[in-house]
Design a protein that fits this description.
By secondary structure, this protein is mainly α. The protein has one domain. Helix content is 78%, strand content 0%. The chain has five helices and no strands. α2 runs parallel beside α5. The longest helix is centred in the N-terminal third of the chain and has 37 residues. The protein starts with a helix and ends with a helix.
């Protein structure tokens, strides 16, 4: 191996190790973020946020809003938010929306990883 190739290999190895460290750190930060959103004291109940993240049954009209976020988020319109205002505060709605988005994103990541694994 020439000196040039040795430097390239060292750089590649260092870059790979750096990415692994970054991925691990980001994974820990993501887990802490998700835990904070779903489990911390907030305006909405923890059970409500967990249900929104998991796409489980919720009281109307939050159920319609969360279902749209999980299935067709691009279809959410102002009227969906307005309907949720009937029984919920702005903070509660925000927390439920954020929880639903986190859950929907996680489901998509898992589905993508599963599809990639099946394609191998």
């Amino acid at each position: 191996m020439t000196t040039s190739n040795a430097k390239e290999t060292d750089f590649a190895t260092g870059a790979q190790n750096s990415r692994k460290g970054t991925v691990g750190r980001l994974s820990q930060e993501r887990e802490a973020f998700v835990h904070h959103i779903l489990e911390s004291k907030a305006q909405s109940r923890v059970e409500l946020r967990r249900a929104a993240a998991n796409g489980e049954e919720l009281p109307a009209p939050l159920a319609d809003l969360v279902q749209k976020i999980h299935q067709h988020s691009y279809k959410v319109v102002d009227e969906d938010i307005d309907a949720a205002r009937a029984d919920n505060s702005e903070d509660e709605i925000f927390e439920v929306i954020l929880s639903a988005c986190i859950g929907a994103a996680q489901q998509r990541v898992v589905a993508g990883l599963r599809a990639a694994e099946e394609a191998k």
